[in-house]
Amino acid sequence: MNKKREVKKIKSGNYSKEEHSKEPISPTHPKHLYGRIHALVEHKLWLQVIFALFFGIGIGLLIGPDIGLIDFEISKLIGEWASLPGILFLKIIQIVVIPLIFVSIIIGITGAKNLRQLKQMGLTLAGYFIFTTIVAVTIAILLASTIQPGKYISQDSINLTDTANLPLSDVSFSMPSFNEIPSFIDRVFPTNLVGSMVYGELLAIVFFAIIFGIALIAINPRKARPLISLLSAVQSLCMTIIKWAMFLAPIAVFGMMIKLTTEFGISTLLGLGAYVLTVLIGLLILIIFYFIIVYIFAKKTPREFIKQIRDAQLLAFSTSSSAAVMPLSMKVAEEKLKVKPAVAQFVIPTGAVINMDGTALYQVIATMFLAQVFGVSLGITALLLLIVTVVGASIGTPSTPGAGIAILAMILTGLGIPLAGIALILGVDRILDMSRTTVNVTGDLTASVFIDKVVKST
């Protein structure tokens, strides 16, 4: 008799609010995917990457122009072949990052209890992300203006190569002028989801994912569940591919450092010490800023916070990809930081796309460093343009290794700084990429704590 009543309810779609709220819409929690990549932390992938980085530098010096054990043309050829695993590594990550972000945002949105809570979270999160990005940019400008790292390197010692062959990521993003804002907004609203994925239009993809996720909340849970199951399967598939790619990470770093060291030599790399130090100091100050936020809103000490999130930080340092760390970050947020599942599932995937404080800080310091090297004066107007550009560009930066370099190229072009300067900082970008990704992931976890305390559960 009860079964017959249930069948009638299914056919008629007659559900009470209590039945609707109790029935889970998402059968597979994204955090359960963390097991696919957590083994990389246990096997100390980050330590392997560090060893590969310095070992690659050592081999590069032996066969490079400084010591010159072999002919320069032969060493250059060795460098090109050694960099092949790094190229494959970047390509594999780029293949899966867009579908991974798309499905993760949708699954995260469906974790919200209702549309009212989702609206409150979204507005609060947007304001928080903009505020922290502005703080990061301000820290960068003050540090670069005070330390002036560009003054520690001689322009005569720079051996710049053509940027045509630089490993820039395929990022389709540019800051619009005032007259272009209407057409820019038009591009943000996707007309072809597949086309947006092909061309890497992340803002359009994020917008579509948000609309898609909201619609899934609005329809009957029984009808939504099959599609959510499919999206969960896609997410699991992406994480499996990422896990395979991560095994290439130490070899990729080793080969890329051989290539870069054989091209530049040790003298130019040592001259970049002030630049590297400036970026690392800025990232450290930004993490201290996160500590303050967590202490104010969650009453957690920096030591306690670091202890709870260190697994996610180590994996971020190893992979240089916020997207690859998403499942582990969600698990850390829920189980160790005690963040509500709905908040973690929405904030972490969204933050992996638009919360790039560490990248924004790096881009400002790199821009001002190259401006100082080439003697380009940046006045108040240029600095304001730099702030607006970096804040806007950080929203559309893919969470993949090396994507920050591509955005930096766009910023340099807009400020009239020679694009060839990118070739100079590529030699030390890997260690900085690992460091700023760690800060980005820390920022996402901090945001989840903040939203969990500020947004009331309804």
Query: Uncertain runs with pLDDT below 50, 5 residues or more?
Result: 1-29, 160-175
Q: Any idea of the CATH topology?
A: Proton glutamate symport protein
**What's the level 1 CATH class?**
Mainly Alpha
The CATH architecture: Orthogonal Bundle
Total helical segments: 21
Write the H/E string, N to C.
HHHHHHHHHHHHHHHHHHHHH
What name goes with the CATH superfamily? Sodium:dicarboxylate symporter
Task: Please render the helix and strand layout as text.
Layout: H1 2-12, H2 17-22, H3 35-42, H4 45-63, H5 72-82, H6 84-109, H7 115-147, H8 181-188, H9 193-198, H10 202-218, H11 221-246, H12 249-264, H13 266-271, H14 273-298, H15 302-319, H16 322-336, H17 341-354, H18 357-373, H19 380-395, H20 403-415, H21 421-454
Summarize the structure.
By secondary structure, the protein is an all-alpha fold. The protein has 21 helices and no strands.
Question: Can you tell me about this structure?
Answer:
By secondary structure, the chain is mostly helical. The protein has helices spanning 2-12, 17-22, 35-42, 45-63, 72-82, 84-109, 115-147, 181-188, 193-198, 202-218, 221-246, 249-264, 266-271, 273-298, 302-319, 322-336, 341-354, 357-373, 380-395, 403-415, 421-454. The chain has a single domain, classed as Proton glutamate symport protein (Orthogonal Bundle). It is built from 21 helices and no strands. The longest helix has 34 residues, at 421-454. The chain is globular, with a radius of gyration of 23 Å. The two termini are 35 Å apart. The relative contact order is 0.18.
